[in-house]
Amino acid sequence: MSRAFVREGDGESDPGALPELPISEHPNYVTPRGMMLLRARLNEAGRELQALDRAVEREAVGARLERAHVQREIRWLQARILGAITIAPERQPADRVAFGARVEMSDDDEREYRYRIVGEDEADPERGLISWVSPLARALHGARVGDSVVWKRPAGDIAVEVLAIEYG
Asked: Which of 111, 125, 120, 118 is nearest to 154 (CA)?
């Protein structure tokens, strides 16, 4: 018989034994918006847990495992919020690229790019939000308008020139 069909132990799986979600090794810098989003996610997960608690009381199928997943997410969110360092945009150097900056740049083919440098949890490149630990954000860090930096991409490195820097 295949081992895939053999029960281990007493046959009861412990849904609380899920592996924890990984926490980044980097400081958890967040924008004020990023902190608001983390807190909103935590509130939503809390509401979801309350709903699941009612389902577990009724012995709903799969509710215990789903509850364990939500509890794990809540622990992760709490850790991210407790470790968060909110960086106010007005405290950044207005003439240089730093955390929270909205940067406009162009490459040699005159294609323009616009990104805002945010925390890891807030990053969404498709919406123009890049993590401060991304290769582009690291390359841009400290640059001024008119500076050229090398953007190391999987598709190949390109030089981009900083056209504008904005905070807020």
From this structure: 125
The answer to whether residues 17 and 106 touch, using CB atoms and an 8 Å cutoff, is no
Q: How far apart are CA 78 and CA 3, in angstroms?
A: 38
| Distance of alpha carbon 156 from the chain centroid | 24
How far apart are the C-alpha atoms of 81 and 55, rounded to whole Å?
28
Positions in the chain whose pLDDT score sits under 70: 1-16, 55-61
CB contact at 8 A, 143 and 96: yes
Residue type at position 75: R
Instruction: List residues bridging with 85 in a β-sheet.
Output: 29
Give the SS3 label for residue 6: coil
The vertex-141 CA angle with 140 and 145, nearest 5°, equals 60
Burial 24-50 (b: 16+ CB within 10 A, else e): eeeebbbbebbbebbeebbeebeebbe
User: What is the pTM for the complete model shown?
Assistant: 0.79
pLDDT digits (tens, 9 = 90+) for 33-47: 999 999 999 999 999
